[in-house]
Design goal:
single chain; 494 residues; Neuraminidase; five-stranded antiparallel β-sheet; 28 strands; 33% strand
């Protein structure tokens, strides 16, 4: 397969652009030694706050030479009558919730899912013309809580994934009904946007959604403290609505209770690594092979509740291995040539790698963890910890970046880490402190590299305090920032 490279001028690191990316790049920056202090501001005599200078101009601490600039923000969009963005009334800083953004293949457009409790939707941002517009949005009636109220409403769109068919998949996480929505014509005018619910994909608390390199398999997780890893093998990869085989992962040596939380007493010490197999939940025609219907819409709860959606309960039925709140994922390739799934387990403070061994088997390893993986190996230590690993990003060389969804404390911000797996065996030798955020009340999310400019990546600043217009005067709000690695200063070790 033909490759081309973009050299990082200062470091000499080359990014190879390929859909079959291998990791293994050595560290190319000098890592940070502490998390960023959060920039807070005091309220005025009317109880209103203003966004800090750090939030507006430079919200991130980065290694030397990495540039950062703002693409857009809530305040910019809402000040321009020609633009639009989702804002849900009455939910404070949850009003917009820009989450796991997706690039189109050209790298010219970004798609922003909104993780709002109700009235969730999708925005498209045109980078060249600096313009955002809402493609569709729910009617907000889901707040009333019945099944019929959700028929024209959506909640907590977390993942957005541009598919091999040039459509966009969106998944509901903690609100809504655990559905996957497909946007069939994401480049169309908002008035012409067509969407459909994919009843062929099990209902869970969706966050990670990633396709295999050949586009025939979709991997996904259930973000729950006894959540599992799933895959769907499409009978017709050109149409995701068709009946397809569905599987869930079961580690051979796991002897615990799938319905209980990963850290429950009955699961204490249970093995969740090693050889695993994919257990079927639906056959090639898309018909359930479990008593529970995995495609049932519902709510996010334990399976003791008859209203819980079906995917989670079908996994419990076959005793699939539970993990501690699995969230985002990436698909790469190991040095041995096999495909690998990386996924975060937020509650465990771990990232797992799952080596694909043919159609029915896999091998699960701990890729990185707060306690077991060295930090900044060969460089000055950091005081930061790997806290609530949530999102993952993958550069053009297949290197994995780990994004936290929570700060390390009330006074210090959340971090982004570079996972150093130089021998590319699915186990990182070090996690290196890459970036840290200063924006009050926020988390970083949606880190993604530009497919046409490999030295650039974008990160969303989600739910900063300034999104709450009842507390902030002209708050900056949720925002997108672009970074460029081409000027990064090469590392100097101890």
């Amino acid at each position: 397969m033909k490759k081309f490279t973009v050299k990082l001028l200062a470091s000499g690191v080359a990014f190879a652009v390929s859909p079959l990316a291998f990791s293994g790049t050595d560290i190319f920056f000098t890592p940070l030694t502490e998390s960023a202090p959060v920039a807070t501001v005091l309220a005025d005599e009317n109880g209103k706050k203003a966004s800090s200078d750090a939030e507006i101009n430079q919200p991130w601490v980065t290694p030397a030479g990495i540039s950062q600039s703002n693409l857009t923000s809530m305040s910019e969009i809402e000040a321009d009558i020609t633009q639009s963005v989702v804002r849900v009334a009455g939910v404070g800083s949850l009003a917009s919730m820009w989450d796991m953004i997706a690039f189109d293949p050209t790298g010219k457009f970004l798609f922003i899912p909104h993780e709002t409790p109700m009235g969730a939707g999708l925005s498209r941002y045109d980078i060249e013309n600096d313009k955002a517009e809402v493609l569709f949005q729910g009617n907000g009636l889901g707040v009333r809580g019945t099944t019929s109220d959700w028929s024209a409403d959506w909640g907590s769109f977390d993942p957005a994934t541009f598919t091999p068919n040039n459509t966009v998949l969106l998944g509901e996480e903690w609100s809504g009904q655990g559905r996957i929505i497909e946007v069939l014509n994401p480049m169309a005018a908002p008035s012409e946007i067509q969407i459909r619910e994919l009843n062929s994909i099990p209902n869970v608390s969706h966050e990670g959604l990633r396709f295999s390199a050949d586009g025939k398999t979709l991997y996904f997780v259930d973000e729950w403290n006894s959540g599992s890893l799933y895959k769907i093998v499409f009978s017709d990869p050109s149409d995701y609505s068709q009946g397809s085989e569905v599987f869930v992962l079961k580690v051979r040596k796991f002897k615990g209770d799938a319905s209980a939380n990963w850290d429950a007493e009955m699961n204490e010490g249970a093995t969740r690594t090693g050889l695993a197999r994919w257990v079927k939940l639906a056959n090639r025609r898309g018909n359930a092979t479990t008593e529970v219907n995995p495609f049932k819409n519902g709510i996010s709860d334990t399976c003791n509740n008859p209203e819980t959606f079906g995917g989670r309960c079908a996994a419990d039925e076959v005793n699939a291995t539970p993990f501690g709140r699995p969230e985002d994922m990436e698909i790469g390739r190991l040095a041995n040539g096999r495909e690998v799934i990386y996924f975060t387990a937020t509650s465990e403070r771990r990232v797992y790698s799952v080596e694909v061994l043919g159609k029915r088997f896999a091998k699960v390893r701990v890729f990185a963890s707060d306690l077991a993986t060295p930090k900044n190996a060969g460089f000055p230590a950091t005081t930061a910890v790997l806290n609530s690993p949530d999102n993952l990003a993958q550069d053009a060389n297949g290197n994995i970046f780990i994004v936290e969804d929570a700060p390390n404390g009330s006074a210090v911000g959340g971090d982004i880490w570079f996972a150093r797996d130089t021998n590319n065996d699915g186990v990182a030798e070090s996690i290196d402190h890459f970036m840290s955020i200063k924006t009050d009340g926020s988390e970083a999310t949606g880190m993604i590299f530009n497919p046409s400019q490999p030295s650039q990546f974008v990160v969303s600043v989600q739910h900063p305090d300034s999104t709450d217009i009842t507390l902030y005067e002209d708050g900056f709000g949720d925002a997108l920032w672009v970074f460029d690695l081409s000027g990064v200063v090469a590392p100097t070790a101890e």
